[in-house]
């Protein structure tokens, strides 16, 4: 590790995996990836069985296990935030839902001065470049990229009723939420291949990990970026009990919205007052580091199911051996899907230009932690606004790299956010309370029919809302006073330092953010 590298990539997560592959494709580049977590062991079913996603989401083995500060508009609850601490990063623990966002998200980015090359027309080729969509490519999709995409069957009868129900409620169907028309309801592509999770590491790192110019180091925590004046020249890292240094021509932070902001602050980039108070020497005054934090909040809207057609029986421990056998040896069955097979996007009011509410439909009533209501058979919508104007921040508490930073999201803090939440719950009921769903719809389990007024709905969201784990925008791209990186993702005011992850988004995209993060990696 004493040698110099051309590139050091900090974080072997989603964007880091893309860069490891693409940069090492040039044999003249020497590339080092430093990942704080474990390898994504192929034998660990908890990582690779799609239906087992609850395990990595609720286990500290592969998970940073962050919590927010008490959220002032959420009854002072601390909101849990899993982040992948493993090769492949959060793509190793996410829900495997493939959503690009709305094309107008990227045009909104490009409306910022200097970001004209981040509009949808410039981003689409990179979305296509990374995809291998198994049902075939088209004007919007690729069919020879490294990342396999499966389109689900949606073969439970609840899906058929749901698709009829949304039309009865006045919403369209769409053939492809990532294609010509996002608005409406349809199948959600999955990052699943032959019944296994296909994370970023499987797509980008494992096929090339034996390249002589690519070095991967796991269990290695980068604690600081080393500067010579304003030039980034290397990193300090901790492996076991030893602290070492390694040098490179270019340093690339791919730690994600929490870790990249934290690392920049630890390295002297951020608000001088904040850093000086913690005894950190200031390298560059960038007030925006850690600011502009955005996320998607969601709740479960659940109903009992009058007919025994939901997936509830599959939760019984006696079913586990057969589920495991079918998945392991046949690559099929209920273990081979994430069950987030369908959903959609709508506009909840006439003031928004494009969809502002996202739904996921599941043919079972269940929480992310695997718990289910006592009613037995059920189904649910995960729902929440996707273009909230609530903004939070991330701030380190000390110069200790192993102390978690202070995180505050300010969910429900704006009038518009609260309005859209009331609309989201009412639209959920409108979609399910149709004749098309009457054959299956039992009583409303959550929030329950007693919750009707705006105040009651907002109290329910404050009590039950959970993060959708779409953290973004803490090192935002742009050229205003709060920007951290330029249009080429170079950190303002310093040399040889780049950030490539969800933190550079000027605004969070409409939907799950894994796909946009890979696009950012490809474009970088």
Helix amount, in percent? 10-25%
Q: How far is the N terminus from the C terminus?
A: 26 Å
The computed structural class is alpha/beta
Radius of gyration: 22 Å
The largest sheet is:
7 strands, mixed
Q: Count every beta strand, where a strand is a DSSP E run of 2 or more residues.
A: 25
Search tags:
alpha/beta, 7-stranded mixed β-sheet, 7-stranded antiparallel β-sheet, globular
What does it look like?
This protein has 524 residues and is an alpha/beta fold. Helices cover 23% and strands 22% of the residues. The chain has 13 helices and 25 strands. Strands 1, 2, 10, 11, 12, 13 and 25 form a seven-stranded mixed beta sheet that branches. A hairpin with a 2-residue loop joins strand 8 and strand 9. Helix 5 packs across helix 13 and helix 11 packs across helix 12. The longest helix has 18 residues. It is globular, with a radius of gyration of 22 Å. The two termini are 26 Å apart. The model has no long low-confidence stretch (mean pLDDT 96).
In short:
This protein is α/β, with parallel strands linked by helices.
